[in-house]
Each structure stands twice: as C-alpha cells, then as structure tokens.
C-alpha cells in the first residue's frame, strides 16, 4: 500500500506560524516523529524510510481533519464503533470543504486512508470493509470469511495483514494474533479470497521482552511468507515506544499515536 509523503517544510511552517494551538501541537509532534524515523533508518543503513500511520484512537474527528491539512493521509483506529463514526464525520467534513460528494473524494484518493489496527469481531467485518483501506488484525479463519463476504461490494480489494502473536508462549487469552505456525495457512487462504489482498504481517511487541528480539522473529516470519507470497511486503510494527527497534528489523509501516497527538484525550 502506497502512502502519501509529508512535507517537513510544511510541518515546520505550521508548527511555527500563526495556526491554531492544537494544529501547532500536532505539527510539532509529527515533525519530531518523522525525524526519529529518519534517524532510525539512517542508523541501520536503510535507504528507504518506513511509512507513518498516525493512530487517532480516542482523538476527535477535528484532529484527523488537522492531520489531513498537515499532509497526513494514513490514520489508524482500533475500536470499530469509534472508527466507523469518525471516518464518516471526517469524510463528510473534507467533502463539504471541497464542495464534493464523499464517495467521489474517496474514489480519487483525496480523502483519508483508514487502517483498522485493533481486534475486529467477525460480525463487524461488513461495516469495517465499508470504510477501511486496510485491516491489520486478521488473525483467524472466521474473520477472513466475514471480510471476504463483505469485500464483494468494494471498488478495490481490501488490503489485509495477518496479525502474528510474537509471545514465546501463547496463553489462551483474548489478545489478538495468530500463532506463527498458523500464519502460512491463513495467508494462503487470504491470498485465494476474492475481494481481499494479502498485504503482509502485523505485530505488537510483547510486554515482557525486548522489542528488538520480537521484531527480529517477525522479520523472519515475513521473509518465509514472501517466499510463497512475494506480494506480501508490508510489515506493520513499531509504536511510540519501540519504533526504532521496528525500523531496524525492517518494518515498512509504523503505527504511532501518542508521540504525534499527545496523551489520550488531548484536543477533546
């Protein structure tokens, strides 16, 4: 999935000039995170720079519109009800400002790309497929079936990432993610599903382990996956606290919220 580059010069102007205080705050956060990403890529010898997905959970639609005005097009949400309502509000506002129909704006790429990054119930798959450009948390067959059924009405295939549970010992709890040994079969089924597109892998670093070690395992799982599915190039990993480790391990997309937007609830 391609992402739209953000102009650092525009961010510096928004940070330093007479924008509203919240826009200045977000611009400063964006600039700082982009500088961190660039430094992390340079320090490990990467010629490319991972794409940034700004996670906007708990922040209002007005902040997403500010992100749009600052050049951001990729945002992430992890609660379906919040994501659905926010996406509708943002698209309506952007279309209103442009004097356009929301569906027209989405069709030509001028609106936001919404990434669903949290656990998704199968019975919510139909609604999520209506607004999401990508689902990063596909981790079981029932959700795959539901997404495939819902994606039939889309203009373009829905990008899906298999979420991998990187814990060395996986207990029977409610945390999302497929066991590493389950990834090949799930990926095969995903790649064969009409209306869906296998984009790659997603993971969250375990709390009780150094992120670098966990992300190294994710990189190896990704390498093995690409032997059978070379198109599955995305590695969605790394957040505010561990983005440097994710960049060093080859992440292509970083999911950062706090260090861009501040503590949850800011701007409400």
Task: Set out the fold topology.
Elements: H1 8-16, H2 21-43, E1 51-55, H3 61-69, E2 74-77, H4 80-98, H5 102-107, E3 113-116, H6 125-131, E4 132-138, H7 141-150, E5 158-164, H8 183-191, E6 196-203, H9 211-228, E7 234-236, H10 243-248, E8 253-256, H11 258-261
Parallel strand pairs: 1-2, 1-8, 2-3, 3-4, 4-5, 5-6, 6-7
Helix pairs in contact: 1-2, 3-4, 6-7
What's the overall average pLDDT, rounded? 91
How many individual β-strands? 8
Oligomer kind: single chain
Note the main sheet: 8 strands, parallel
Structure write-up:
With 268 residues, this protein is α/β, with parallel strands linked by helices. The protein has eleven helices and eight strands. An eight-stranded parallel beta sheet has the order 7-6-5-4-3-2-1-8. α1 packs antiparallel against α2, α3 packs across α4 and α6 packs across α7. The longest helix has 23 residues.
What are the key terms here?
268 residues, 45% helix, 11 helices, 8 strands, globular, alpha/beta
Compact description:
Helix content is 45%, strand content 16%. The chain has 11 helices and 8 strands.
């Amino acid at each position: 999935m391609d992402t739209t580059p953000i102009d650092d010069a525009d961010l510096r102007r928004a940070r330093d000039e007479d924008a509203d205080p919240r826009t200045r705050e977000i611009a400063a956060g964006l600039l700082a995170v982009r500088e961190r990403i660039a430094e992390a890529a340079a320090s490990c010898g990467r010629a490319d720079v991972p794409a940034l997905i700004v996670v906007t959970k708990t922040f209002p639609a007005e902040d997403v519109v500010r992100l749009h005005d600052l050049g951001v097009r990729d945002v992430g949400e992890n609660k379906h009800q919040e994501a659905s309502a926010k996406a509708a509000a943002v698209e309506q506002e952007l279309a209103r400002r442009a004097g356009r129909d929301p569906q027209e704006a989405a069709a030509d790429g001028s609106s936001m790309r919404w990434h669903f990054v949290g656990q998704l119930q199968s019975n919510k798959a139909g609604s999520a497929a209506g607004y999401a450009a990508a689902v990063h948390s596909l981790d079981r067959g029932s959700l795959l079936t539901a997404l495939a059924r819902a994606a039939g009405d889309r203009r373009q295939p829905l990008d899906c990432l298999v979420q991998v549970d990187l814990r060395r010992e996986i207990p029977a709890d409610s945390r999302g993610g497929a066991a590493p040994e389950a990834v090949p079969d799930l990926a095969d089924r995903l790649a064969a599903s009409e209306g869906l597109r296998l984009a790659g892998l997603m993971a969250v670093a375990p709390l009780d382990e150094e992120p670098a070690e966990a992300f190294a395992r994710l990189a190896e799982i990704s390498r093995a996956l690409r032997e059978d599915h070379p198109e599955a190039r995305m590695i969605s990993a790394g957040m505010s606290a561990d983005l440097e480790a994710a960049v060093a391990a080859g992440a292509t997309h970083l999911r950062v919220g706090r260090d861009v937007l501040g503590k949850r609830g800011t701007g409400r």
